[in-house]
Amino acid sequence: PFPTRRSSDLVVLSDTTGISTVSYVSHIAISPNPTHARINIVFGNNYREEYQISITDFMGREIFEEVIQVHGVHTEVFDMSGEASGVYFVRITNHSGQLFVEKLILE
């Protein structure tokens, strides 16, 4: 049987080996966006998994990178006050290489 899926779930399908896999991420939220300084990144799933979180600027320069284990809902808080105003990208990658990208605007 398939797991129950809510309309707020993000479903990512990948097919790199000819075998399709499905990963359910209960949510990914970045707030506030746009921001002046601090941001909260909230995401999670229903099982333990390793994630890499990175924040890069528009030119691809890495501002932050961290690898964490997540089971359930997880919140990361970042202080962007030392960075220049502009467009940034928050990337969350799981152990399977599935990539979630969200644009962040720093005013």
Structural write-up:
The structure is a single chain. The chain is built from no helices and seven strands. The strands form two sheets. Strands 3, 4, 5, 6 and 7 form a five-stranded antiparallel beta sheet that branches. A two-stranded antiparallel sheet has the order 1-2. It is globular and about 35 Å long. The protein has 107 residues and is mainly beta. The N and C termini lie far apart (46 Å).
Molecular shape: globular
Class by SSE composition: mainly beta
Biggest β-sheet strands, sense, barrel: 5 strands, antiparallel
List low-confidence stretches.
1-23
Q: Which structural traits does this protein have?
A:
globular, mainly beta, 7 strands, 107 residues, two-stranded antiparallel sheet, disordered N terminus
Short description:
Helices cover about 0% and strands about 65% of the residues. It contains no helices and seven strands.
